[in-house]
Amino acid sequence: MIKVNQQIVKISDLNNSSLTKEKADILKQMDAYREVYEYATFDQLDFDVSVKLQIIESSVLLRKSGARFATFARSRCNEKYWKRTDNGGFQLLPTVSPHQAIDDIFYNGHEYAFECATAVIIIFYKAVLNNIGKANFNRLFAL
After folding, report:
1. CB-CB neighbours of 94 under 10 Å
2. Cα-based distances in Å from 77 to 10, 50, 122
3. Secondary structure (3-state) at 83
4. Rounded to two decimals, what is the model's pTM?
5. Cα-to-chain-centroid distance, residue 35
6. Is the terminal CB of the chain with fewer CB neighbours within 10 Å at N or C?
7. Alpha carbon of 27 to those of 1, 7, 13, 30: distances in Å?
8. What DSSP assignment string belongs to 9-72?
9. What does the alpha-carbon distance between residue 43 and residue 135 come to, in Å, rounded to a whole number?
């Protein structure tokens, strides 16, 4: 079930020309669950669905990037954008814009290896970046 502004939303009421098939499919799936998805506004609902779509797209892009899975001990990153920490994590260099560093993982994946937990975070960051744009992403994730 989906609620916006404390009102139950009928998915059939949302099917208009601006709603993509992909968004409609996600909304139908959300509506079918027992869990109640609550939003203050339709813009919040749209943002959530858009991020869900971007997560799927970012997952596919990461798979195609050439990045490899590795343990924390064997992780690696492009040192032009990241510092590999002692525990195998990646720390953004202060001279690099956040969007460039995230995008580099997808463009130069062959230079990266990380474990599943890092992959999930990278996918989430890429999804948010694609949804809010470079300027907003850089402002939110600047050091």
Report:
1. 8
2. 46, 28, 12
3. strand
4. 0.88
5. 22
6. C
7. 9, 15, 11, 5
8. PPHHHH-STTS-HHHHHHHHHHHHSSS-EEESSHHHHHHHHHHHHHHHHHHHHHHHTT-EE--G
9. 20
Say if strands 113-114 and 68-69 run parallel, antiparallel, or are unpaired: parallel
Q: Would you give the end-to-end CA distance of the chain in angstroms?
A: 39
CB 114 within 8 A of CB 122: yes
For residue 88, the one-letter residue type is: G
133: left (phi over 0), alpha (psi -120 to 50) or beta: left
At 81, list the tokens. 């954008």
- Report how far residue 86's alpha carbon sits from residue 36's, in angstroms, rounded to the nearest whole number: 42
CA 79 to chain centre: 23
Burial of 140 (C-beta count, 10 Å sphere; 0-12/13-18/19+): exposed
Q: Model confidence over 71-111: pLDDT tens digits?
A: 999 999 999 999 999 999 999 999 999 999 999 999 999 99
